[in-house]
Write a structure and sequence with these properties.
By secondary structure, this protein is mostly helical. The chain has helices spanning 5-12, 18-30, 32-58, 64-84.
């Protein structure tokens, strides 16, 4: 038996009932597959945090309309550069 991703996420976030958490911990000691899944979840969290940080640094607006206007602006700039080359 292997734990599903949502169960490993519960374990990782300390949301799993304490008895199930003990069994999960024991399972993780002996199951490489579940340990790898757990590690991937942690890597996903790092990736998401990095993407959020980049979005803040780039000042990408939350409003989809503003985002599309920003994309159009970059597209127009790119088109102008190609036409002058």
């Amino acid at each position: 038996m292997h734990y599903a991703r949502y169960e490993l996420d519960q374990y990782r976030c300390h949301e799993m009932f304490w008895v199930r958490r003990i069994f999960c911990r024991l399972h993780l000691r002996h199951c490489r597959r579940c340990r790898k899944r757990l590690a991937r979840l942690a890597m996903d969290d790092i990736l998401i945090a990095d993407l959020r940080k980049l979005m803040q640094e780039m000042n990408i607006p939350d409003n989809p309309g503003e985002y599309h206007a920003l994309c159009d602006l970059f597209q127009e700039d790119s088109d102008r550069r190609r036409s002058t080359v």
